[in-house]
Amino acid sequence: MANKSVWSDNRFWQRSATWVTGFASLLLIWLTLDTSAQIQMGTDADLKNGVQKRVPGPTVINYKITYEMSAKRGHEVPVIGEKEKFFGRDDYSEEEAGALLHLGKLGSQAKNCMDCHTLLGNGAYYAPDLTKAWLDPAWGPDGAMQALTGKNTKEEAMAEFLQHPDQYATHARMMPNLGITAEEAKGLVAFLKHMSSIDTNGFPRNFGRMQGAVNGK
Amino acid sequence: MANNHLTSESKQLATWYFTFAAILFGAQLLFGLVAAIQYVMPGFLYGLLDFSIARILHINALVVWMVFAMFGSVYWLLPDETGIETIGIKIGKLIYWVFVAAIVVVVLVYLFIQVGPADPTTIWFITEGREYIEAPRWADWGIVVVALTFVANLFLTGMKGNRSGIVTVLMADMIAFAGLYLAGMFFTDNITVDQYWWWWVIHLWVEATWEVFVGSIAAYGLITMIGAHRKVVEMWLWIEVAMLFGSGILGLGHHYFWIGTPEYWWEIGALFSALEPLPLVAMFIHVLYDWGKTQGGQDERGENKSVITNKPAFTWFVLNAFGNFLGAGIWGFFHTLPQVNLYTHGTQFTSAHGHLAFFGAYATILVGMMYIAVQGTNGIKVMKHTKASLWAVSMITGGVVGMTVALTIAGYVQVLVSRAQMGATWAAYFDGQSGVWFTQAMDWRLIMGAITFLGFVFLAKDLLTTGKNPVHER
Question: Does A20 touch chain B (CB under 8 A)?
Fold first, then answer.
């Protein structure tokens, strides 16, 4: 026994496994505390004072959101700009906007969105990613969807589509009618607008910049 | 599986778990086929059983059959390892029926109610709408009760009987496995926070606790099927635990690149998830090394026969060693670095990896355990391959590898066309999906899926009939 190496000792490996696991777990818990603080939703005051949050508060729906290249960070980041009307208003209070977002987030789960689409890139791959859907040129003034749905704004076009997706044959792979009500559709659009304002470290890259001509928008 | 050879109630309960697991495995493949057909013919069952529902059933059946087979595996090996009957087995048996009944209700609700209004009752009674863990909240609590009973069975038995290295690892692993489920049982309006904790369940299950479980089962299989030396096997097991948890726990970071979490996860996720394949290489070497060593020892003694006492099960175990490394290790590493993942995240690439990894890492070894149970139930000394077992293993493996290759090609097209070239919009997405290379890949995926399903039919037939086949040594 005297010359037995520690490397062939089960007790040694058992202790190593315990220490490694314990250390990794502690590190994860510590990082989780730091991350949790950074991904808390911001407030209306943050937005008014121009304080950037990774996940802005619900009243971000009162503002224009764009997705622009940041020279400093080397990728695109959401930029919150001037006020912008959302269903005709740009003065949603924190409670009103929060209630809309709540309804939309609940709706996104109750309708199983994630089992066809991806959200923040996670979910199923049967339908387009929704991370920056709010910024998709298809819904903008030059896109097809406003004319197709007969609406004059992005949010109304989206809400109309969500309520009757089976009436708009955008692709052979049609979205089914999920019984989404007008109010739920409004919530879902608020949820999508809010999601597009989340700082996703540049995912997806070059969103909406590559249509048609070279380097063209 | 009628039995006259099982004296242990724990093993009897294990066979129940395996039986229901096999049924759900079939359901998983069936709904996978529906979803695969919908990629090729989008009108198929439209408005009746839409893609989202087929996919929920496909992936939930997958997770649940694996959990059933994992519970079954533990109930099977406990009496062998501890030398005593499992404590609290009567409650274990009762809980089994509760679990089965809950699963049936959840499946019927998925199938016939599908979606609900945007309020909390939907989350509680219809669907939580969160990939893999869509099960409504009432079922979550049911699962917690079931898992706690199972963990209690394991702990009480492990503490009273002989606590081998394998049982010790399982005790630590299964309590973490059950506890992690709690991280997925809350609602928040903040989708970033939502996905942060959602990954605690998904990742820390399949890339940490489940992998350690597989290490334990592989260790048990090597001892029982080829008579490998326990000390060697258990030493390897501890090394694997250190490597798996050492890389897998912080490897969680590779899911935090793009969901709104800080940039430092790029470095942490890249480093630790790049290490994740290492333990899988170790497991592969371990299985083949032990096999060669035991067989070599026997050959030296001049005994000209195989050391393997269960040919079909051992085939599945070796496939596990290789498939885990290939599917989880290589296919995972392909797209785990943030520089690559920026473009591959949320494409068919992930799906390719998912198919080969779940199959290679988990389906294989759990099917192997089913064969071990058939052997024990029928009092077979040396179990041989039958025609059906060979067809099953070849067709299922060939089918899954074929699907993986097809999905990898589809993923490449999607990454290059939809993401890099066209810029990830709605129009870009459909540009990628409509290309010939993509649609051809989806045709092949369907064909390979059908082959996998046929292989399953052979597997079911073999599991049901091979026990009585006179070809085995008794």
Answer: yes
Residue A216 has pLDDT above 50, yes or no: no
Domain chopping of chain B, boundaries: 1-162
CA atoms within 13 A on the CB side of B304: 0
Cα→Cα distances B205→B179, B212, B252, B283, B341, Å: 10, 10, 10, 18, 21
Tell whether the model's pLDDT for residue B1 goes beyond 50: no
Q: A117: distance to nearest CA of chain B, Å?
A: 9
Q: Rounded to an integer, what distance in angstroms lies between the CA atom of residue A184 and that of residue A107?
A: 7
Residue A68 phi/psi, 5-degree rounding, is -125, 150
- Asked whether the beta carbons of A122 and B346 are under 8 A apart, the reply is yes
State residue A2's pLDDT score. 62
* Position B9, amino acid: E
CA pair distance B208, B195, nearest whole angstrom = 18
pTM of the model: 0.96
Instruction: Look at residue B198 and tell me whether its pLDDT is greater than 70.
Output: yes
Question: What per-residue confidence (pLDDT) applies to A209?
Answer: 77
| Closest-CA residue of chain B to A97 | B189
Q: How confident is the model at residue A171 (pLDDT cuts 50, 70, 90)?
A: confident
Select from B342, B277, B276, B317 the least CA-distant residue to B73. B317
- Distance separating alpha carbons of residues B259 and A195, to the nearest angstrom: 10
Rounded distance between C-alpha atoms, residue B198 and residue B183, angstroms: 7
Inspect the interface and report whether the beta carbons of B191 and A105 lie closer than 8 Å.
yes
Asked if residue B232 has pLDDT above 80, the reply is yes
Place of tokens 């290379």: B437
Question: Of the candidates B73, B189, B184, which has an alpha carbon nearest to the alpha carbon of residue B132?
Answer: B184
ipTM of the complex as predicted: 0.95
Is A112 close to B192, i.e. CB distance below 8 A? no
Q: How many A×B Cβ pairs under 8 Å?
A: 253
* Token duo for residue B203: 């990742």
What's the mean pLDDT in B293-304? Answer: 90
**Does domain A44-196 match CATH 2.60.40?**
no
| 3-state SS, residue A204 | coil
Mutant choice from B425, B431, B442 vs A, greatest count of A C-beta within 10 A: B425
> CA-based Rg of chain B, rounded to a whole angstrom?
22
Residues facing A77 on adjacent strands: A68
Encoded tokens for A197? 């304002």
Tell me the shortest Cα–Cα distance from A85 to chain B, in angstroms.
22
- On whether the CB atoms of residues B178 and B147 are closer than 8 A, the answer is yes
